[in-house]
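chain below, 198 aa
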Amino acid sequence: MDDIAVIEDPAAAEAALDPVRSRILAELTEASSASMLAARVGLPRQKVNYHLRALERHGLVELVAERRRGNAVERLLRATAASFVISPAALAAVQPDPGRAPDRVSARWLLAVAARLVRDVGALISGADRARRPVATFALDGTVRFASAADRAAFAAELSDAVTALVAKYHDAAAEGGRDHRLVVAVHPAAPEPIKEP
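prediction:
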């Protein structure tokens, strides 16, 4: 089971977004049968089986084992990942495009850049999985508390200067065999952590 998987197919996204199927996916971090799930989600086994088949058809759950129970064979399934992200590629015709709203201090532009990041990294992960190779990435995540809007603006200017200097130092447009890497740096107000349901 992967820690995280990116859903790129619109039909798979639709299947994962169904509230019942989403609940079943959440229950499948450990291998379970339709009977075991039925008791946990409060649905008849036949309905759970119907939803499991749909999730399996879209690669969101996988068969782990089969075991004989009397005259029947019980199938044990689990989610293919502990969590899922839906790529904007699943909404290809309406996915965000940073080029349509190039206001670099706009929250909507930042969201479009983040959506492109999810789409691109999702595609890289899919390709790397097929090739059975890792994807070389790097990310920083942290929090900074500004005393004022002026401090935030000064920080953004210094950060921009530092990143521009680093790019100028290491970028080599003529490097034979080199590979372009996308760089995304974002600063935004921290959103409150969502309250987890018991």
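The chain has a mean pLDDT of 90. The chain has six helices and four strands.
thats it, cya
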